[in-house]
Structures are given as structure tokens and as C-alpha cells.
UniProtKB/TrEMBL annotation:
It comes from the Bacteria. Residues 100-195 bind DNA. GO terms for molecular function: phosphorelay response regulator activity; transcription cis-regulatory region binding. Pfam families: Response_reg, Trans_reg_C. This is DNA-binding response regulator. One of its GO terms (biological process) is regulation of DNA-templated transcription. InterPro entries: CheY-like_superfamily, OmpR/PhoB-type_DNA-bd, Sig_transdc_resp-reg_C-effctor, Sig_transdc_resp-reg_receiver, WalR-like, WH-like_DNA-bd_sf. Residues 1-92 form the Response regulatory domain. GO terms for cellular component: cytosol; protein-DNA complex. Keywords: DNA-binding. PROSITE patterns: OMPR_PHOB (PS51755), RESPONSE_REGULATORY (PS50110). Residues 100-195 form the OmpR/PhoB-type domain.
Length: 195
């Protein structure tokens, strides 16, 4: 079994797996020697919700059979790599939980539609980057968010990965949020909303 960005893939060659991991930014695990149908059955039994079957069996009966086993998508070989990448991205997008239009935690209310933020009823005047960082931290529901993830999600693709921008933005955001302190630094890991 191959898993890329939390999507289970069956029947993928090693070179293709490496490319998929680099494209999706996902992780990889392999259980060689199993038939795709058997892998799909196991994954569905375990509750894995996103399964993309890649196989040389491209007959209609095989595709229908794979989908009936619980696969979310089925792609027969040969295929265009761009199509595979698009299908992986579609599975990721479809399975991402919808975020509420208003995020709340520890007295902070972030209205995504109105682009407004408050703490304990006090309006916060945030820059777009501060708003984006606060949005990512609130959406993580107390989980740690790395500086790299914040840089990737809040800044554009041209941002220097060695910049201090995240640290500086978190510092100014902390000051604007006021006391008691809300954003915790988890050494070596990132930031999270505490309190």
C-alpha cells in the first residue's frame, strides 16, 4: 500500500511514488506484494476514507469492482502523470473538512467572511499576515502549527524559507492580542493557541 497525503494508493511503482510524495507534500508507506483489491478491502475496514486505485486492470468491470469495494477513485495504466496529480489533489480537496465562517477559541472570534477579529469583545486591527496566522492557529484547534506551515499557508510561494517573518508576525500578533498570553511557542515544533 502507498499512502500520499493521507490518500491510499495501490499498485504504484517506486519512482512514481517518490514523485507523488514530492508533488503532494505527503507521506509514504509501502506494503508490497498485495493485490489492490485486498489493499482496498483492508483500508475500508480500517476506516480510511480516501482510496485511489492505480492498476493495469482498466476494464469497466475492474473499475466498477474497485469502486464497489470502497475506492474513491480508480485510474488505469497507462495514465498521464498530470491526471494522477489532479486526481490526488481532488481527493485532498474533497476530503478536507469545511471550516466554519467564524473561528472561536479562548475569547478570540475570527470572522473569515468579514475579515474581522475580536478578543473578549475588543476589536483587533490586524494586518493580512497577522489575520492569516491567527486563522491557521485557530483552525488547528490547539494543535501545533509549524513556522514552515504558516509560511506556506499565509505567505506567497516566493517567501524566503529562512526569513524571520513568521517569528516577527507572531510577536506583533501576541502584542495585539494582549494578556493573558494566547499564542504558545512549542520549542522546535511551532506555535499553538493555548488558554
Amino acid at each position: 500500500m502507498t499512502t500520499v497525503a493521507g490518500i491510499a494508493l495501490a499498485g504504484v511503482g517506486m519512482a512514481l511514488m517518490a514523485l507523488l510524495v514530492s508533488v503532494s507534500g505527503g507521506y509514504l508507506s509501502v506494503l508490497p506484494g498485495l493485490h489492490g483489491d485486498a489493499v482496498c478491502r483492508r483500508l475500508v475496514q480500517r476506516g480510511v476514507s480516501r482510496v485511489l486505485m492505480l492498476t493495469a486492470s482498466d476494464a469497466v468491470e475492474d473499475r466498477v469492482g474497485g469502486l464497489m469495494l470502497g475506492a474513491d477513485d480508480y485510474l488505469g495504466k497507462p495514465f498521464a502523470f498530470s491526471e494522477l496529480v489532479a486526481r490526488v489533489h481532488a481527493l485532498i480537496w474533497r476530503s478536507a473538512p469545511a471550516r466554519p465562517p467564524v473561528l472561536r477559541a479562548a475569547g478570540v472570534t475570527l470572522d473569515l467572511a468579514r475579515r474581522s477579529a475580536e478578543r473578549d469583545g475588543r476589536l483587533l486591527r490586524l494586518t493580512p499576515k497577522e489575520f492569516g496566522v491567527l486563522e491557521q492557529l485557530l483552525a488547528a484547534s490547539g494543535d501545533v502549527v509549524s513556522a514552515e506551515t504558516l509560511l506556506d499557508k499565509v505567505w506567497d510561494e516566493h517567501a524566503d524559507p529562512f526569513t524571520n517573518a513568521v517569528r516577527i508576525t507572531v510577536g506583533t500578533l501576541r502584542r495585539k492580542l494582549g494578556d493573558p498570553p494566547l499564542i504558545e511557542t512549542v520549542t522546535g515544533a511551532g506555535y499553538r493557541i493555548g488558554g
